[in-house]
C-alpha cells in the first residue's frame, strides 16, 4: 500500500517541513506485527511513522536503521527505511510475547520507562554514522527531537498522531516533521510548532491540493513552497539467503531426517510473513557444507 510524504520548504527555505498521512502503510505493518497490546501497538506505530517521515530526507542509497531499547532491555522496537521510501518495523520476540499475554493498561510512558534509548544508524554500508541517546521525554516524538539535537545538533520538531480502535487496530495515522536548516532564525521552529498546535494544521493540510497547501503555508509562514510528493510503502528486504543461517542452526540429525524422508523445511519471515521453502536437495547441500 502506497502513501506519500509531502515535502515543503517554509520561511524562505530555512525550515524543511514534511507531513504525511501514512495510514495505509502503517495498517499493513501493524497487521503483520500481530501485537495485541494497545500500548505496544501505539509504540511501534509511532516509531515506524517517524522513520517513514525521515525517509524523505534520504538520498541515493542512504538508509536508516533504528533500534529502540526499552527500559526492559529485552524489549526492543526495530524499524528501517531507505531513500526509496521502503519502510518496515517490528518488535523483538520478547516484547511480542509479552504483548500477547495481556492487554495491559500501562501508558506509553510506562512502556518506555526511564532507561530507554534510541540508536540510529544512518548512511551507506561503508560510511555509517551511529548515534545513541536516551529518551528523557518518554513519549517518542520529543525523544526523537532530542536525539537530533544531541547527535546532529539540529533543531527538529516531530509530531505523530496514531488512532487505534478498542482491538488495537490502526484507524488513522499522520505525522509532521520539521527541521531547522542552516540560516534559520532563532525561535523559528517554535513558531512553526505553535502554528501547528493552535489549529491542528496537519489535518487541514492533508486534505488540500498543492496550490491550497502553498496558499495555507504562505498565510502562516512566508515564502513557502511544495517541493514534491514522495511515495512510502511497506517493504521487507528479507531473502531466502537470510534463512540459511536458521538451517545451519538445526542439528545434523534433523537435517538428515528431512533428506531421508524427502521432507521440505519451511521457514517464515516474522516481519512480512513471506515463507521460504528449503527442498531436500538444498538441505543435502547444507549437510555437506556444515
Ligand atoms: Zn520479510
Report on this structure:
The protein has 290 residues and is an alpha+beta fold. The protein has 2 domains: 2-234, Hsp33 domain, CATH 3.55.30.10; 240-289, Alpha-Beta Complex (CBS domain Like). Helices cover 37% and strands 30% of the residues. The protein has 11 helices and 12 strands. It has helices at residues 23-33, 38-55, 93-101, 108-112, 141-152, 188-199, 201-206, 210-220, 244-248, 252-260, 280-289; strands at residues 2-10, 15-21, 63-69, 76-82, 86-91, 117-123, 128-134, 156-164, 170-180, 225-234, 265-268, 275-278. It has a 10-stranded mixed β-sheet, sandwiched between helices. Strands 11-12 form a two-stranded antiparallel ribbon. A hairpin with a 6-residue loop joins strand 11 and strand 12. Helix 10 (252-260) runs antiparallel to helix 11 (280-289). It is elongated and about 75 Å long. The mean pLDDT is 93. Bound molecules: zinc ion. Residues 236, 238, 269, 271-272, 274 line the site of zinc ion (ZN).
Short description:
With 290 residues, the chain is α+β, with helices and mostly antiparallel strands.
Please give a handful of descriptors for the protein shown.
290 residues; CBS domain Like; 2 domains; 10-stranded mixed β-sheet; two-stranded antiparallel sheet; 37% helix; elongated; binds zinc ion; zinc; disulfide bond
- Number of DSSP helices? 11
Strand content: 25-35%
Based on secondary structure, the structural category is alpha+beta
Look at the structure and give the CATH class of the largest domain: Alpha Beta
Point out poorly predicted stretches.
none
Net shape: elongated
CATH structural architecture of the largest domain: 3-Layer(bab) Sandwich
Query: Any idea of the CATH topology of the largest domain?
Result: Hsp33 domain
Gap between N and C termini: 40 Å
Number of strands: 12
How do the SSEs run, as a string of H and E?
Answer: EEHHEEEHHEEHEEHHHEHHEEH
Question: What is the alpha-carbon Rg in Å?
Answer: 22 Å
Mean pLDDT: 93
Instruction: Count the domains.
Output: 2
Q: Could you give the order of strands across the largest sheet?
A: 7-6-3-4-5-10-1-2-9-8
> Could you estimate the helical fraction of the residues in percent?
25-40%
Could you say which small molecules are bound to this protein? zinc ion
Main β sheet profile = 10 strands, mixed
For the record, what is the CATH homologous superfamily label of the largest domain? Hsp33 domain
Organism: Oceanobacillus oncorhynchi
Keywords: Chaperone, Cytoplasm, Disulfide bond, Redox-active center, Zinc
InterPro entries: Heat_shock_Hsp33, Heat_shock_Hsp33_C, Heat_shock_Hsp33_N
GO molecular function, one term: unfolded protein binding
Amino acid at each position: 500500500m502506497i502513501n506519500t510524504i509531502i515535502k515543503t520548504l517554509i520561511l524562505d527555505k530555512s525550515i524543511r517541513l514534511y507531513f504525511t498521512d501514512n495510514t495505509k502503510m502503517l495498517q499493513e505493518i501493524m497487521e503483520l506485527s500481530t501485537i495485541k497490546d494497545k500500548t505496544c501497538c501505539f509504540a511501534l506505530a509511532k516509531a515506524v511513522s517517524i522513520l517513514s517521515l525521515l525517509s524523505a530526507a534520504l538520498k541515493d542509497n542512504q538508509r536508516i536503521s533504528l533500534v529502540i531499547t526499552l527500559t526492559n532491555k529485552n524489549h526492543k522496537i526495530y524499524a528501517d527505511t531507505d531513500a526509496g521510501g521502503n519502510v518496515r518495523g517490528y518488535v523483538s520476540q520478547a516484547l511480542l510475547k509479552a504483548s500477547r499475554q495481556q492487554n495491559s493498561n500501562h501508558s506509553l510512558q510506562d512502556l518506555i520507562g526511564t532507561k530507554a534509548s534510541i540508536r540510529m544508524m544512518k548512511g551507506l554500508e561503508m560510511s555509517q554514522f551511529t548515534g545513541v541517546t536516551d529518551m528523557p521525554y518518554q513519549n517518542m516524538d520529543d525523544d526523537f527531537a532530542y536525539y537530533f539535537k544531541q547527535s546532529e545538533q539540529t533543531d527538529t520538531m516531530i509530531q505523530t498522531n496514531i488512532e487505534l480502535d478498542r482491538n488495537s487496530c490502526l484507524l488513522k495515522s499522520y505525522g509532521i516533521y520539521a527541521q531547522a536548516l542552516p540560516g534559520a532564525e532563532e525561535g523559528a521552529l517554535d513558531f512553526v510548532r505553535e502554528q501547528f498546535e493552535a489549529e491542528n494544521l496537519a489535518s487541514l493540510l492533508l486534505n488540500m491540493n498543492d496550490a491550497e497547501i502553498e496558499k495555507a503555508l504562505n498565510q502562516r509562514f512566508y515564502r513557502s513552497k511544495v517541493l514534491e510528493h514522495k511515495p512510502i510503502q511497506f517493504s521487507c528486504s528479507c531473502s531466502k539467503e537470510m534463512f540459511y543461517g536458521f538451517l545451519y542452526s538445526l542439528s545434523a540429525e534433523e537435517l538428515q531426517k528431512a533428506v531421508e524422508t524427502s521432507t521440505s523445511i519451511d521457514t517464515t519471515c516474522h516481519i512480512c510473513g513471506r515463507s521460504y521453502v528449503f527442498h531436500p536437495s538444498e538441505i543435502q547441500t547444507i549437510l555437506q557444507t556444515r
